[in-house]
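Take a record:
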Amino acid sequence: MAWGTEDIPWMRRALAEAREGQGSVEPNPMVGAVVVREGVEVAAGHHQQFGGPHAEVFALSRAGEAARGATLYVTLEPCCHHGKTPPCTEAILAAGIARVVAAIGDPFPKVSGGGFSALRSAGVEVAVGCEADAARELNAPYWKRLTVGRPFVIAKWAMTLDGKTAVASGDSRWISSEASRRRVHDLRGRMDAILVGIGTVEADDPMLTARPPGPRVPARIILDGSARLPVDSALVRTAVEAPVVVAVVAGRAPADRCEHLARMGCEVLSFPGDGPVPIVPLLDELGRRGMTNLLVEGGGRVVGSFLDAGEIDAAEVFLAPILEGGDHARTAARGAGRVRMNEAPRLENVEIDRIGEDVHLRGRLPQPWNQSALHALRQVDPP
């Protein structure tokens, strides 16, 4: 059965409901559900926390008997397996839902079209594809971790109108406004981890925490190949309050320095070799730990290393009306760069808004994994 234009507002309502779970449900996807009967919303719900009931269960329990014969709008294919919670397909059938409109299928192997099949086999009408692009965009971090096993990487920086992230001395406080920094703290509070290089730590002695706290307590990850992290830094002093992971390289990091940092409560994550900390193996390890969202805050060499590795998935940029004017390389992304401008990746799905005098720009970078995820989703989206 196909969906129609009359279904679009209800699916958008379900997508808005799904966003309420951002930062609380990962590594699960954000999911929203709305029960509609005779053109009127009966109940809505969203997946609220990892390991808790799914969106459909919340919506159906709130609807009660009014769900019988109604339409359920859900942003992702209902699960059909026993995991941390019972199958949502069983709850849908028990509630007497007559029609299910889903935005997209779920390529998770234990679902992957099975939810739709179970509902159809029981006589429920199923339509798939309403607001599919918006649903895929919403859960891009979930798709990446499911597809390639790595967290979704967001690069964040603030810069002047002439492209500087600091003055020549390294001082950068403050390029962006207080209101912009509040938005950054909101972003931090939804992350699994925040990453900077040792140069940023030595220059700024940052805390890398969300203030006020958000739904997650992000780990603080330092790219520090030679284990230079000062033991009296704010990060080490607060290692018991939020995890600190020091990524080192075995051939460069003295054993006594690593042992000292470990005794101070830091985790020392060592990689073989004697060069820089390898980006892809680091992301693979974070993915194995279930991390879904990683915020890379710099500096320029660190952001450049992720760009060179092809591992920046999105950017959050704060542009301030300041002209620094210095003849130096304090820029947002350094690295190897490109030979020609037409080889440089261009952001997609760009959004721009004002925060006082600052401009906030956000967008996604095209990635091969996204095409793989799209192909997998199409395999479980019935026509």
Summary: The longest helix spans residues 368-380. The longest strand covers residues 152-159. The chain has a mean pLDDT of 92.
